[in-house]
Amino acid sequence: MSIANAEMAQQQIIDEFSFFDDWLERYQYLIDLGKKLPPLHPEEMTDDRLLSGCQSNVWFIADGDASRLEFRANSDAAIVSGLIALLLRVYSGRSAEEILSTEPRFVDAIGLSEHLSPTRANGLNAMLKAVRNVALSERG
Description:
- This protein is mostly helical.
- 54% of the residues lie in helices and 11% in strands.
- The protein has a single domain (6-139), classed as Sufe protein. Chain: A (Alpha-Beta Complex).
- A two-stranded antiparallel sheet has the order 1-2.
- Strand 1 (58-65) and strand 2 form a beta hairpin.
- It is globular, with a radius of gyration of 14 Å.
């Protein structure tokens, strides 16, 4: 299910997280989202696809061009997989221009900034940077 644009995808995420009263429920929802990520094939999980800056292993794959970039990723950590699922909803299937013009406002809006451990926050930032770098390189 593709959302029409990145801003609408972010608003949908914010709305979904507003249903939960506490962070234990939000963490559980993140874990559930991560479990729904399509798995990567073992041959795709190579060292050259590992993101640096993440404490857990995160494999990141980008395909496409400036008009439409597709991202796939997965992690060996449950909550990180959930964070990946959120990022893919917002940024995958978008143009390089839309990616670069869409700030990840959902991160603050749902409280991730305050509730992620420093290492998970670093990992989230590394994933956001990887998405932006691909968009920058494709935009030319």
